[in-house]
Specification:
The protein has 160 residues and is an all-alpha fold. It is built from five helices and no strands. The chain starts with a helix and ends in a 10-residue tail after the last helix. About 4% of the residues have low confidence.
Length: 160
């Protein structure tokens, strides 16, 4: 995989995410642009990884998956924005609410990957389905790790 290129896109995505003003229209356009860039790079990586072992049916399933994944990505961005906005007050109920939202989002993401792994298996076979599952979880883990490396832990920053 072209991990260097992917890491560059991921880093740019996270940098822009951290710089996004919370003005709704502008932020939405920036997020859409970033998701589009990330999605194109990701599709290129998937194509390179799977090679000629996939057919048009796979790409139709994959494109549908990506639309649903992007919707969850926007929810994750909203969650991160909420984290940033409320960082200084993340105690008690607010901390619990954040954890509950993160857990629901993680479950949705895992369910989505499982759902589409089954669909990929039907159109492209078990090996491609296993590769899809592996790559999706690898990339998801890489994104999560990058996010956690770039946000402060609760209570570590003093904000006046």
């Amino acid at each position: 995989m072209k991990t260097k290129t992917f890491k560059t896109v991921l880093s740019a995505f996270l940098l822009l995410l951290s710089m996004i003003s919370l003005q709704a229209q502008s932020a939405t356009e920036e997020v859409d642009l970033l998701q589009s860039l990330y999605g194109m790079e990701k599709k290129s990586l998937i194509s390179e990884f799977l090679g000629n072992s996939v057919n048009d049916s796979f790409w139709q399933v994959y494109d549908t998956y990506e639309m649903e994944r992007k919707a969850l990505g926007k929810e994750r961005i909203d969650l991160l924005s909420n984290y940033v906005e409320n960082y200084s007050e993340l105690q008690g109920d607010k901390a619990d609410e954040l954890i509950n939202k993160a857990e629901r989002l993680n479950k949705k993401q895992n369910s989505l990957i499982s759902k589409y792994t089954k669909k990929v298996r039907k159109v492209a076979g078990s090996e491609v389905a296993a590769q899809f599952y592996q790559v999706e979880h690898y990339l998801l883990s890489a994104v999560r790790a990058e996010i956690f490396e770039n946000i402060p832990f609760i209570g570590t920053l003093k904000i006046d």
